[in-house]
Amino acid sequence: MKNRTIIKTSLKASIVISATIASAFGGTAAPAVMETPAASSPWEFRIEPYAWLTGLNGDIGIANRSVAVDESFSDLFEHLDMAAALQFEARNGRWGIIADGFYTELSNSGDLADLRYSSAKIESQQFIGELYGAYRITEGASGFLDVYAGLRYNYFSADLSANGVSPTPDFDLSKSRNWTDPLIGLRGQ
Questions:
Q1: DSSP assignment, residue 74?
Q2: Is 54 left (phi over 0), alpha (psi -120 to 50) or beta?
Q3: pTM, whole model, 2 decimals?
Q4: Is the peptide bond before 42 cis (omega within 30 degrees of 0)?
Q5: Which residues are CB-neighbours of 140 under 8 A, at least 6 positions away?
Q6: What are the distances in angstroms from CA 78 to CA 51, 58, 124?
Q7: Which residue from 9, 22, 86, 144 has the highest number of Cβ atoms inside 10 Å of its Cβ?
């Protein structure tokens, strides 16, 4: 397994917190819903930004270098460069189409107590995108229940660079992985 790139991560204790633009500015916590009048179109649309508070636990590495990672959300927040999450839903009667995207960038750098390298920097990017169709099984005044199916696309990349102390040269390593999973489930309120 020489020079094989290793990127293994697993999310631990993920907590999904839905929020809306209105609640971010002190308004109600109900989803931001845009509905077209019933007379003009049977379609309803919903856009909902949210936050995903998560930790990272596993091994991360590039080429033949890897390191164990065990970071809580508060640890990761200190190294957060960017995060965005948004869900869009279009519904016509019992049928719906839902798209969901989550993107994050993390980085950390520092000096090294190493005779060969003076400093190092690691950066990671992660994207999760979902697209699925939904069918509303039941809906009433107290809530709803949907069954859904679709795909989840995952992308993860890591960049590691270090400044060498003469005569050791600088190095810059990068690697990314992506995969798609089927998605089947129930959702309700």
A1: H
A2: beta
A3: 0.69
A4: no
A5: none
A6: 16, 19, 14
A7: 9
Tally the C-alpha atoms within 13 A of residue 125's C-alpha that lie toward its C-beta.
10
Three-class DSSP category at 126: strand
Q: What is the mean pLDDT of residues 166-188?
A: 92
User: Rounded to an integer, what distance in angstroms lies between the CA atom of residue 19 and that of residue 42?
Assistant: 26
How far lies 108's CA from each of 75, 81, 84, 87, in Å?
11, 10, 19, 29
CA pair distance 150, 101, nearest whole angstrom? 14
Provide the 3-class DSSP secondary structure of residue 141. coil
**Torsion sign (Cα): 81, 177, 73, 188:** positive
User: CA geometry: angle at 160 spanning 159 and 161, to 5°?
Assistant: 125
Higher confidence at residue 111 or residue 1?
A: 111
DSSP string, 76-95: HHTTEEEEEEEEEEEEETTE
Please report which helix (H) or strand (E) contains residue 160, including its range: strand 143-164
